[in-house]
Amino acid sequence: MSDLPTVRPKHSRSTSITTSKKTTSHQRKPSLNVQQQQQQQQQQQQILQTPKPELKRHSSSRASLNIAPPTTSNLPRFVNSIILRVHSFLNPSGPLLPHSKHGNAFGGTAKPSLLSKLAQSRFIRFAALFYVIFSVFLSLNHTWKYLTSSPNSNNSPIRLQQTDAALDEQFNDDWVPQRTYDQDDTYSLMNQMTHGLKMSKLFSKSYYDAAKNIQPFWKKASNVPEKDEVSIITTANADTWEDLKRLTIYWEGPISAIVHIEEDDESTVEKIKQEYENTPELYRNVDLHLAQIPGEKLSVLFPRNAERNLARLLAQTDYIMDLPHGVIPATDLRRTLESNKERIDSLLLAGDLLALPTFNFKNRKATRDDVPYDKSQLILKLSEDKMVLDDKHWKENEGPTDLERWMDAEFLYAVEKYEFHYEPVIIESKTIQPWCSERFLDSRAACIFSSYLQGNEIWVLPDDFMVQMPLEVDSEVTDFDNVVENRIYAKFYWEQCVHHARQLDALGLWKSPRSQHIRNQCSRVIQNWGKGLIGKPE
């Protein structure tokens, strides 16, 4: 054999089969292509000779046996498509390019907005999907109930008759309306509240343990007063109990009194109980409300102003007269009120106040026999310098009552020189007047000041007056408490000016004569706080 390498003829690697006669000049390539071509032709002939089934001859019923039912394959496909859609909704696809490249490809980076971020949030999409599903099921539920319920089930004549019979039985002539918080129950939750909770809510600035020990109508008078009478409201304790007994001699009308006793002083409580039951003037006209307060002295646990409000709340008449202890009506005030009933009722129902000047003895040893019983006797004692006008916070014979004018007066006159410390004995409506501010230990001036700022007049009775008997005990309010009270009252003055100015403005009365009092008393305050409300009334 020769060592020279054998040179093989090059042939085309094309896989195409050609039958052109031009390719017969090549030796190796045509031979391979011809063999492959022959084999393929034989296979095609065999396939063509194989008999095909004639599907057209089969009926539709036979064809259904060879093809799977569409329901068995479409149901999973439908479920899968739903799952796929939910998955794609909960997992939104982002852009194909990263954010930086996406921006470069489309002309610069664009920061996604907050709305687009919320739209792409998976939590937001889940909440939206849940809301849609819940709404659909809720709508289906209501629709189903509407379609399946009978139209006359609730309005049938038999059912209506049963309902009417039940209502007639429930709301008969003996039915008493009560507040209820349940449409199926007639009882009131107010009836189930503890007494301490009610009292604590009534007197929110008081100590809870003090408020819960209050016993309204601890002793109730046997006489039932007329609604248009005047009730005296007052307070008493172990030291001033005798003053209350003395008051019943000068006043034969109804009295609503708070008895302030130390919490553990049962002996005093029993003593007062026995005296009340054995004294006709007491058990006929006096309603006693027991307040057993921690401590024997007046304190912020349950201040005197709160006691005034309680006595006023429990009074059985439409009109009241606030009377400090030791003060007695010297004249026959009940006859004056009865003889001028129409005039006095019209004033009190309009919100005005009736004031009675209070006079004091200069001699602390004065007794009951020294009390003047009419105006002429009083003027004589004034001229003899045995008695003086006692307007608290003013000097003797001075104050807004205007002693000279009162001595000459024959008719009612309005107080013209009012000052916010003025606190005479007053007669007022039980329901119309504002309540006393309970932030003060003992301040009747605060009660009157609120009413005066509302535009109510203070009318002084010309022939009747009060007498302050000499006190055997010192004042219950200490010097330190007086300093605190005065500072609180200065703030209270500003507060009431702004409060009542806003009320009158809201009622549309700011430009009416009713605002004259507050303009005179609070001009400096409202100029600073009222933003130009001050002006002349129309």
TrEMBL record:
Residues 1-70 are annotated as: Disordered. GO terms for biological process: protein O-linked glycosylation via mannose. The keyword Transmembrane applies. InterPro entries: Xyl/GlcA_transferase. Residues 61-70 have a biased composition (Polar residues). One of its GO terms (cellular component) is membrane. Residues 35-46 have a biased composition (Low complexity). It is found in: Membrane. Keywords: Glycoprotein, Membrane, Signal-anchor, Transmembrane, Transmembrane helix. GO terms for molecular function: glucuronosyltransferase activity; xylosyltransferase activity. It is a single-pass type II membrane protein. This is Cochaperone prefoldin complex subunit. It comes from Mucor velutinosus.
